[in-house]
Amino acid sequence: MSFANPTVGSISWFAKHEFNLSWRDFVRMMSAGKPGRERAILGFILFAVVVIHGLAYLVLSPAIKSGLVVDKALFAAITGSLLLTVSLMMSQAMELVTRVFYSRSDLDLILSSPVSARRIFIVRIGAIAVATAALSLLIFGSAINILAIFDDVRWLAAYPVIIACGALSTAISLGLTILMFETIGAKRTRLVSQIIAAVVGAGFIIGIQLAAIASLGSISRFEFLTSNVVVDSVPDLQSWIWIPARAVMGDLSALFLAVAGSFAILGTTMLLFAQSFGERVIVAAGISQTHSEVKASVATFNNKSHGAVLRNKEWKLLLRDHWLVSQTLMQILYLIPPAFMLWQGFGNAGALAVVAIPVLVMAAGQLAGGLAWLAISGEDAPQLVQTAPVANGAVIRAKVEAVLGAIAIVVSPILLLIAYFDLKSAAIAAIGISVATVSATMIQLWFRSQAKRSNFRRRQTSSKVATLAEAFSSILWAGTTGLIAAGVWILAPITVLLALGTLWIARSFRPQQEN
Amino acid sequence: MSEMALEVKDLSKTFDRPAVNNLSFSVNPGEFYALLGPNGAGKTTSLRMVAGLLQADGGSIHVFGEDAMHNQVGVKQMMAWVPDEPMIYDRLTPLEYLEFVAGLWGVPTEVAKQNAIELLDWLALEPHAHERCEGFSKGMRQKVALAGALVHDPRLIILDEPLTGLDAGSARLVKDVLLARVKQGCSVIMTTHILEVAERMAERIGVISKGRLIAEGTLNALRVQAGQENTTLEEIFLGLVEDDNELVDAA
Predict the structure, then answer these.
(1) Mean of the pLDDT values across residues A163-184?
(2) Cβ of B95 and A391 within 8 Å?
(3) DSSP 3-state assignment of B60?
(4) A385: chain B residues, CB-CB within 8 Å
């Protein structure tokens, strides 16, 4: 062993181990497990960097050209964006903390070894902070760079502020999860933390959108944050609440305060909880050995058709999947602002449908993709179903019906709300939802591969083509429906052709199905 | 002559090399047949083809006279497949799982209910009938899977290493249930690496190596074939496989 290597069992040794694992995971995710794709990955990343910087320039250049004035509106917009970032980071961090608690992975090996559990958990909490900050850095990096290049280099100070937000979010999420552990127990924490993560992630953006709709009749959060409604009600520029905003804009004392404060909180959290983290992980491990009793569900053995039997099984499994329920809840939460807008805009349904209907179609498409993967690819007992005296086509049909039925249940209340205001818009939305749902389901059918349901979170790594096709198809059908709902028929054929083209490309890339 | 429970003729399957090579064997109605072979001999591949989980490159499979290649659904109606890894749903209870399997095989309500209750009781799963399978041990999961295989009263049960990872008590229960089914007229074909199990339970034993059947018969017949009377199945098996390896190497 080289002397340059860190001491075995030390924090740096664990950090190196974690970094190696994370890096390999990242490479595997990007290359879909196929070696020799490094150049292609690098090319794709460079292309993506150029594209997102171009987009950031398009969005920010008008404001930069007109000159950014340091006033309450700018501070409110920056602070609002930071709060939004922190809420999204907290959601992500809670999800990651829960994953460390409940997924065994290599913890059995580490906890059974004679090294200090405290060290590994310090490293893992740090890794959560890094992962949490990394995603936001990716999202906001292009905007920061464009502002630094075309406005003022001081904007680069936003980078350490985002990293500090990651540290703070991780500390709060960890504290919240441990608090739940202590108050409601290990078993309930898993479900409740997933729901809270979904609500926290969606809550702030939805809150701002609802406030924007209620006060301005617009769904734009920036319009709201820079509006007189907000500017008139916030403190003067000298107030301490603008410390994060001043830090983003390069005020060194504010930057020091924000970064040092966040890291001090994270450090204290690590020192306080790292030791007991291991004990709680052991408690969490115990719950997988406990048996969940299902009292309400009574097996009736009613002689139903094969289709009904398969559909019932799928629905039962979907409902009992806590993580999926929380993700669905988050998608439903995102539908609240458009629904509220509909409610507010009674009598002006034509214009409102342009906002509400595409969001609904997009959400339905994305949800259908996830559910279709679970029903079609995420079959935990594939050999049982294959050896049953049921034709393959009938099995697939029943699973697709289960997906369509689940989507219908989720979107029906909102469709009814739209129908209450405007029957024509509701009909257009229903058609758009059906097409987006069927498209997403077909993509999952073409790219079906056998996997465990528990691999749902990593389903995107199996096929990048399917993931991109699913996203583009949902976006394009959402756009098409929005255009038709707005009466812009002339552009609709273009988006329809693009959506069909996406499906055709996806179908051409589908892997050959094995027996 | 009565029809065979399972009749496999000239079955072939090639992946990157031949996995099953013109394999022929048959299982009589009400017979317990053990298929033995070293790792990679083609046992699981053969049984997966019989169960309809893998398409054969050549040959034929008949189950109670029905052509499995052409009437897959009809043949599946008569069979049950139990792999070494239990195929159950973590978020269903054993009772719900049995309800699902009975539904797939179209078992009439009353029969399904009766069978499920009996099986859960017999396999000592009754106290856990309303608990989700997610926290079950390997032995309990395998018992749930076996109950699923039996709930539709199959005429032919195909088992691939069903005793792997089971404790002595669970293994005993599984063996008892299988023997009871054979007594009732059900046919069983099972692969196993536990030769004592094959020795004690199987009426006939087939030994395959490199995808070919190299010996078949009762234990006594195999002893005669190997020229090793009063010896254990383990010694016969090792001798047969070694001889076959030498033959192949010489060829």
Answers:
(1) 91
(2) no
(3) strand
(4) 104
Q: Which residue has the tokens 């229960």?
A: B173
Distance between CA atoms of residues A502 and B72, nearest Å: 36
How far does the CA of residue B229 sit from the closest CA of chain A (Å)? 41
Which pair of tokens denotes residue A112?
A: 């059974």
Alpha carbons A312 and A319: distance in angstroms, whole number: 11
Q: How confident is the model at residue A293 (pLDDT cuts 50, 70, 90)?
A: low
Strand order in the sheet with B6-14: B18-27, B6-14, B58-63, B66-67
Short-list A403, A400, A325, A396, CA closest to A364: A403
Nearest to B100 among A288, A309, A515 (CB): A309
Contact A388 B95 (CB under 8 A): no
- A235 near A76, Cβ under 8 Å? no
B131 to A293: CB separation less than 8 angstroms, yes or no: yes
H or E, element range at B33: strand B32-36
| Residue A3's pLDDT band (cuts 50, 70, 90) | very low
Any residues with CB less than 8 A from the CB of A77 and at least 6 apart, and which? A222, A225, A226
Q: Given pLDDT bands bounded at 50, 70 and 90, which one contains residue A290?
A: low
CA distance B56 to B60: 8
Pairing between β-strand B187-191 and β-strand B156-160 as defined by DSSP bridges: parallel
pLDDT tens digits, B168-184: 888 888 899 999 999 99
| Strands B18-27 vs B187-191: parallel, antiparallel or unpaired | unpaired
Paired with B240 in beta bridges are none
Phi, psi of B103 (to 5 degrees): -65, -40
What pTM, to 2 d.p., does this model score?
Answer: 0.69
User: Is residue B209 within 8 Å of B241, Cβ to Cβ?
Assistant: yes
Q: Between residues 96 and 115 of chain B, which touch chain A (CB distance below 8 Å)?
A: 96, 98-110, 112-113
